[in-house]
TrEMBL record:
This is Potassium transporter TrkA. One of its GO terms (biological process) is potassium ion transport. It is a multi-pass membrane protein. Its main location: membrane. The chain crosses the membrane at residues 16-35, 47-64, 76-100. Residues 123-245, 288-401 form the RCK N-terminal domain. InterPro entries: K_chnl_dom (IPR013099), NAD(P)-bd_dom_sf (IPR036291), RCK_N (IPR003148), Trk_Ktr_HKT_K-transport (IPR050721). GO terms for cellular component: plasma membrane. SUPFAM superfamilies: NAD(P)-binding Rossmann-fold domains, Voltage-gated potassium channels. Keywords: Membrane, Transmembrane, Transmembrane helix. It comes from the Bacteria. It is found in: Cell membrane. The keyword Nucleus does not apply. It comes from Candidatus Sedimenticola endophacoides.
Amino acid sequence: MNNVVFLVLRRMRRPLLTLVLTYAVAVLGLTLIPGQDAEGNRWYMDFFHAFYFVSFMATTIGFGEIPYAFSDAQRLWVIFSLYATVIVWLYAIGTLLALIQDHTFRHSLTERRFSKRVRAIREPFVLVCGYGETGSVLVHALTARDQRVVVLDRERDRVSLLRLENLRQYVPALDGDAGRPAHLLEAGLGHPQCRAVVALTDNNEINLKIALTGKLLHPEVKVICRADSHDVEANMASFGTDYIIDPYDTFSNHLATAMQAPGLYLLHEWLTSLCHQPLIDPVYPPTEGVWLICGYGRFGKAVYRRLKAEGVEPVVIERRPEQTGVPEGHFVVGRGTEAVTLEEANVARAVGIVAGTDDDTNNLSIIMTARELNPDLFTVVRQNEQENQSIFQALGADMVMHPSTIVANKVRVLLATPLLYEFMSLALHESDAWACELVSRVGSLESDRVPAVWEVRVDAEQCPAMVEAIAAGKRVRLARMIADPRNRKRTLQAIPLLLRRGNERQMLPDLDSALKSGDSLLFCGRESARSAMAWIQRNAASLDYVTTGDTRPQGWVWRAFSRRPRRPRDGEV
């Protein structure tokens, strides 16, 4: 508000001063020039009547000469004042119109409306800094789960595009610099309902400043940052950034998991993907033989280090080794799009290839050329632009690495279902046979679609009926929580994945386990099962039915009928 007032006063200062001065001169002249009354006596107009006359004269309304007919001197002064005030008014109105069209002024008004809307939020929300490809995917995913989001991005075109998006909820957005603390505060960093700040800009330094500002101005808020430099990651970790996501290291870890435990990799992909998407098929990257890595940038180096750790000897193909550096092993200078370069790297004997340059066209060309020379290759391709999604789907690579999707999915899991992040971290210590068995169970829930994943906390807000029963000394078993409230003998299509009780974590908890107030549970299953479970959590009658089999009448009318004795029928004693 202060910025708007300052801009108005600064731009309108000269027109307003000119207008005031013109009015003052016109009024003063009318009070000094003598006139004649009805009897022919000399009279002078007082200041009030002079100001009144000049006020309607300047608008060219023309109520007439008051209180007596003017003398020629007065009429001459009125003519001068009339043209002067009209010209000054045109000058002031023109300046005002120019001010309204000024970008700085309009942005100040937009900024004021934005901060007002953010202050009016009464629900927990997430502040997303950066609305590029990653931010767009994340905002769509969060709003689809009825999560409130506020967006801050430097590019005005991106913010304008956000306002045209068909989102489930209204998302306040501002085109501002997320590296400025003032803009972060306007976007709700200090708001009591702000639960997390997500830094997804394409600049590591800005992400670093966002993380630092968030931890200093709102220490309780969860800070999640994207970083693709190990130096920046170490700097972020030094002051307590909650989660730091490097898409290149993340994917290289996924690739290593797929090589070591394909079942665990498949479980991760099924549980962390968006609900109702098609289930992906299992992949089996070769663990022996030669791999080709085309592109030795940040992504290529991350994959190279991981393959080396797995005992695989990769061959690097890089066009500019003087800029990216040279790996320790064998490497070939070139793009990898030409058959000559791939043959020099011995593609015929290779078992896998990674097309990891920062150009989508080159990556597609590398895979297609390599397949012509060796159709049995396991292909991994990097997708840089979201708009090329249909082309990469048509390519049919075994694994696709899209940095924006990787970061958005991980942030979505951390914000929407943090227990799933804990579950997958614990699952890394399980065997692949354990993961394959769980994959089989998850696959039986939904035939070909990703199941829903949700959390339930046993408290008065989410499970009032269960909390009341536990407080009354009743034993509420986990098995009763996934019983069908319409037929207690049937089990809902849901699997309890994790039970958290204090510092204790139970993977795939026993269905006979007794629940306690404060427990947190992670489930996966059908959306219909999630809706049915809500009846048991909130409705005491449904909980009694699945626990004991008794159905109690609800409402005083039905309870009154149930207490009335039944009349015996004819022939009954």
